[in-house]
Please model this.
Amino acid sequence: MSKPRTHVIGRSGWGRTLGAGAVSALYFFPVYYILMTAFKTRPDALAMPIKFLFTPTLDNFYSVFERADIQGGGTTDSGFSHYFFNSLFIGGTSVSLALIIGTAAAYGFSRFPLKGNDTYLFIILTTRMLPPIIAIIPIFVLFRVFGLSGSYTGIIALYTAFNLPFSIWMAKSFFDDLDRDIEDAARMDGSSEWSVFRKICLPQVYGGLAATFVFAVILTWNEFLFALMLTGTETRTVPVAIARTIGGQVGVDWGLLSAIETLFIIPVVIVTFLLQNQLLRGVTFGTIRK
Amino acid sequence: MFEIRLEKLTKRFGNGLVAVDKADLEVGRGEVMCLLGPSGCGKTTMLRMIAGLESATSGDIMIAGKRVNDLPARERNVAMAFQFYALYPSLSVEDNLAYPLHAEKLSKAEIAARVARVSEALDLKSILRRRPHQLGEGEKQRVAVGRSIVRNPTCFLFDEPLSRLDIQLRQTMRTQIKEILSKLDKPTVIVTHDQIEALTMADRIAVMQQGKVEQIASPHDLFSKPTNLFVASFIGTPQMNLLQARLADVGPNGANGSITARFAVLGETISAVVDRGVAKLESGSRVTLGIRPRSFEFVDARTTDALHASVDITEPMGAETLAHLVEQGADLRCVVPSNAAPTVGDRVAVRCKAGQLHVFDDSGNLVG
Model:
């Protein structure tokens, strides 16, 4: 008689873990390749076949911020620290604004429905249905007419408007899932409508809002098209600045490019890491009842 | 002086559904009133109207002598415990208990003192720091009750307070809640679909059906004098036997407002002492006889005024056995001590014990 195969229910063996590992490695490879290149010298970066073993250097990271002068041997500010500030400031402000306005609007749509509520919600979503490139020319003209081109106000307003539909729809679904009895209980306990929203409803959807925040941050952080057309030298964001480093007489400096990208993904990684507990609860919101 | 008073209270929803239909109800100081009825009868809607969570279409809601129809829930000073507890998920048990007190703008010391008193009374001391999702059903229930009694409201409302608890816990909580309510001496309205709950906890019960209050009476009166066929069949387990019959004739008046009447039922004629109200009916009119399963007694086949039937099924219920008897398509439910249970297939004779026969007229109202 052969020994019965034992299998612990609820636990996967090494084989499956290895399989999952291989898939993850495949996914992670592009990111790894960029990280690796960021620490390579120019010859190493261009070497074929790909060099996996090399002496790492931080030169690329220095040259992100300091550009060597052609004459004299000194350095000048490349402006990248300013572009990073722009990305953080514009992204952070517009996503926060969209979330604040979106949450308030979503609560309204959820709790005090208008006549034809669903129509309004649908109209809000239609603004996201067309590819942004279709809207770029009228928006460009509008920005010119109102003098918003190249200003922080303009690009922040635009990003806020673009993040709003998503924020409203997400937040509304979170509010819809809440138990209304809890709000009624608060009313019975003497809460005003404002306290019901502020003290009872809002804390219950923090997780969902955190998830919405992260998704919106990633979208905004990586946005290129509008930033290219509507920001000026003062308000340029990192994606646009990256694009400008490509080209020129000496060809693409892959090491420099990778260094910028490495720095570029750090804020998103930090935000996602800090909010990961909330994030998991947020995306699974409503699937677990009471 | 009634503390809660509903006058011709009506709720019509947007879709035309009348959830509560001209309901009148009065709850006195310290009285526990149970709203009892099948699901969808409007009892919860009625409770929510008293609470101020639902607006009344017409009629008046008076609390402590004041018309409160136009006051929002937060200004009515009414405490309510919800069916699914409705604890604030982001707050600890302690903060849940303190929440209504913050709204009253009490001092910190006063809030702490009140929370301490309630958590002492309900045995919540050990779980004050926990959040609602870390509590068992019984604990959640106690917190919900605690939150409603922590302040000093004009009245208490409970919506299906025990429906989520298992049977053992239900019994303990029933006693505990009853004890607490008797100490509070405030008008209380409890909504339930469980008649045991209503019969054990209430001072008076309002039986509702399709938005109408059918009868308001003490648990005992409800059981012994159900005003119509609905109440008769709704109250009591197993259900009351309702037999189609004809009034044969009525004898002379007896003592204590009683009268002897004869009925033709299941092909036999039985006579019984009933309330004098039966005399108002004409001989030969159709009536429904109501007999509780425990009002039957097995008798010798030759006994007068007995009904004869065959034993169809017996269901042991522990100390008692429920026997189903059939005769002419009618099903008679009799509860007898298990040691006296009849054998399936036998022909038996049963008789209604004296004074336990209910007579309903053709339109279903109790006459005697």
Observations:
- Residues 80-111 of chain A form the longest helix (32 residues).
- The two ends of chain A are 49 Å apart (CA to CA).
- Strands of chain A lie at 66-68, 75-77.
